[in-house]
Amino acid sequence: MLDLTGKVAFVAGAGSLGEGWGNGRATAVLMARQGAKVFGVDINEQALIDTAAIMEREGHKNWAWQRCDLTSNDDVKAAIDACVEQFGRVDILVNVVGGSVPGDPVSLGVDAWDAQMDLNLKTAFLGCKHVLPIMLRQFEAEGKGGAIVNVSSIAHMSHQVGGRVHVAYAASKAGLMAFSRSTAIAYVKKGIRVNTVVVGMMDTPTVKTRITKQLGVSADELNANRNAAIPMGFMGDAWDIANAIVFLASDEAKYITATQLVVDGGVTAAR
Ligand SMILES: NC(=O)c1ccc[n+]([C@@H]2O[C@H](COP(=O)([O-])OP(=O)(O)OC[C@H]3O[C@@H](n4cnc5c(N)ncnc54)[C@H](O)[C@@H]3O)[C@@H](O)[C@H]2O)c1
User: Which keywords describe this protein according to UniProt (predicted)?
Assistant: First the structure.
């Protein structure tokens, strides 16, 4: 089940904002555990070095990484070229890069709006721009294209816990889902599947660092608020997201494209 042996995965955002398991780091490590050759990129070199240490500790030899700003077309092209040079192909593209800044249309600066669109939407566009031709060539040569998984957020539907307003995050993550669906249909006859994992409130390092600062609350208070807002009663973790991504990237999901897998402990259904 979910065997990724022989597949090459390009994981964008394979570090973590802070110590521990971010969604991208868990995804990169889980893909390696499932047998994939993994090429991880992130803007944070130290975070990649930390991921590399885990790969080393677990004995995953088929792992390579490169620092890359996913909002830069040149960086993305160079990293994907490096992946192909190293491993010969790309079967899986995962884009986990993203993050939120608070603000409504009046309080949010124009530069901050543009930066949110770049971080949450352009990153996926650039990954697809450079990976799709490779997957297309693979499909034409051997009948196997590839699988792309993007990472959105339940925040595209409403405010998160605490009534935090983040219009650019909500809009960019909603756009990401439309982008994924539309790209999926554009390539539906070419052996390439494109899906989105819609993330709920997860207990990742970013929650403890960035969001506590943005809201001006303690980590305990934030955790309590988030847990209380979830029908299951507790936050998920990075492995819940990694498992969903690995499933959508695997051959077991071969008939699934242009859809969303919501991983949120029941939050959206209960609203
Ligand atoms: N944690 C949650 O509760 C939650 C909720 C909803 C959605 N998400 C989504 O899950 C994804 C990952 O979240 P996380 O909690 O693991 O956060 P995270 O901040 O740990 O992960 C994001 C990673 O992307 C990297 N990154 C940021 N900008 C980059 C750039 N320009 N180029 C390359 N890499 C860059 C960061 O260094 C980091 O390693 C994001 O897309 C986020 O929006 C998370």
Answer: Oxidoreductase
**Within a domain: 152:** yes
CATH number at 155 reads: 3.40.50.720
* pLDDT for 28: 98
- Examine residue 18 and state whether it is found in any structural domain, yes or no: yes
Q: Residue 36 corresponds to which tokens in the numbers above?
A: 């994939």
Select from 29, 153, 156, 262 the residue to mutate for testing ligand 1; criterion: most ligand atoms less than 8 Å from CB: 153
What are the strands, taking DSSP E only, across 158-224?
A: 192-199
Q: Across the beta sheet with 260-263, what order do the strands follow?
A: 63-67, 37-42, 8-12, 92-95, 146-153, 192-199, 260-263
Report the atom number in ligand 1 closest to the C-alpha of 202: 3
Share the mean pLDDT of the chain.
Answer: 95
| CA dihedral (222, 223, 227, 230) positive or negative | positive
